[in-house]
Amino acid sequence: MTKLLLEKSKPGRVCSNLPVEETQDSSSFIPKDFLRTDSLELPEISEVELIRHFSELAKKNFSIDSGFYPLGSCTMKYNPKINEQVARIERLNTIHPKQPEEQVQGALEVMHVLGEYLKEITGFKAITLQPAAGAHGELTGLLMIKKYFENIGDKKRNKVLVPDTAHGTNPATAGMCGYKVVELKSNSRGQVEVESLKNNLDDSVAAIMMTNPNTLGIFEENILEISKLAHSTGALLYYDGANLNAIMGIVKPGDMGFDVCHLNLHKTFSTPHGGGGPGAGVVCCNEKLEPYLPTPILSKDSNGKYFWDYNKKDSIGKIKGYYGNFGMFVRALAYIWANGKEGLTQVSQDAVLNANYLKEKLKQFYDLPYDLECMHEFVLSGKRQKKNGVSTLNIAKRLLDYGVHAPTIYFPLVVPEAIMIEPTETETKEILDEFVEIMKKVAEEASSNPELVIGAPYNTPVRRVDEATAARNLNLCWNSGCK
């Protein structure tokens, strides 16, 4: 029994000097040296001081609510506030995953309906909402592929083919699953070189991991041929759903010939992104891989009752505690319902329109390695500015001075001094034009006054960091008193 002693607070004070909690028999399992003997000295501040402190911290933090966020490939979508309101409905956010199924039928229905929509959007038959993030979804998908080949007795497949434009998690995930990673080269149009695929495709290949459109923002024109080639050797095709925001409602990964995919709900369906979570890396698959989905599977009986089905003998097993990040499912479903079928298609069309508009406006100031119609994002190069000693990193830091979050830089690796830009669908023409003027201004500064750009940023809460020194002299202390 815990006994909490409370002192009377001073008027207008948020907190006071509270004594330590006295726990019965605490000395029996806590060493004496670790037991507090005096009161816990907490700062005494007024409510208005506290509010001002946190408000000031919020001002120093850049977010999609405060400015333009053209972060390529990460799809920093605006999070509609209605989603947050729905996710905070008491009957949804106070339930517990260990409650009996009959008490949470509404929550299970939310998950089931979301799953049905996502299967329709992707063109797949089966789904799991369990994975906690995109990379976790990749792991789930590849483990399913591995279990599939083990189940059919095909033990010679030990390779995964990954394009040179792939997200870094693709080869990392394949390696974690015990596969040898073989890189596929891109052609002059920024797409998978079919001849390179043919040269590497044999009966030792388990899967090809692809993003379409790829990380250059270019649609893989030969995807049906690639799918046919892969399946002709018995290999499977994995779809990295990070760029689904470009094709949602227009074309389905399942129709392209993919066997399994993961979706990042934050990238395509407007759930929160950043801070390490909470995330949702939903995995969809076809009939061939359905038996290997992680358990439990959300099912519905003949009476319309939802239940968790653990009776899946070929499943890869559980890959996360409980059933996934439920709050993200509520937000994603609210987003889908708010937009509807036509609205989701419009989302993709607007994202593609915005990206192409920026590409055409900016290619006169920066190099454009692949001058093709892009999808939701495109990649510039700062090679022109590099001739004056201004790197892409310098450009990114200078953008901070103008109140714009830096784009993704130095990725994909096939583009030197890469600047990846993704405006998303919610930005207006006025915002895009303002961004063009800022990018133009920085390009002019890089030419006329390179030292100005090299020294940036100048007006951010944290000034320029000496990355070389920081990398060479790591400070791994966990508190300020550590030497």
* Global structural class: alpha/beta
Q: How many alpha or pi helices? A: 16
| Share in helix | 25-40%
The CATH class of the largest domain is identified as: Alpha Beta
Number of strands: 14
The CATH architecture of the largest domain is: 3-Layer(aba) Sandwich
- First and last CA, distance: 40 Å
Largest sheet, strands/sense/barrel: 7 strands, mixed
Low-pLDDT segments: 1-23
Write the CATH fold name of the largest domain: Aspartate Aminotransferase, domain 2
Could you characterize the architecture of this molecule?
The protein is an alpha/beta fold and about 475 residues long. It has 3 domains: about 1-60, no CATH class; about 80-335, 3-Layer(aba) Sandwich (Aspartate Aminotransferase, domain 2), CATH 3.40.640.10; about 345-470, Aspartate Aminotransferase, domain 1 (Alpha-Beta Complex). It has 16 helices and 14 strands. A 7-stranded mixed β-sheet has the order 3-9-8-7-6-4-5, with helices on both faces. The chain has a 3-stranded antiparallel β-sheet with strand order 12-14-13, with helices on one face. Helix 2 packs antiparallel against helix 11 and helix 11 packs across helix 14 (about 430-450). The longest helix is centred in the last third of the chain and has 37 residues, at about 325-360. The radius of gyration is 26 Å and the shape is globular. The two termini are about 40 Å apart.
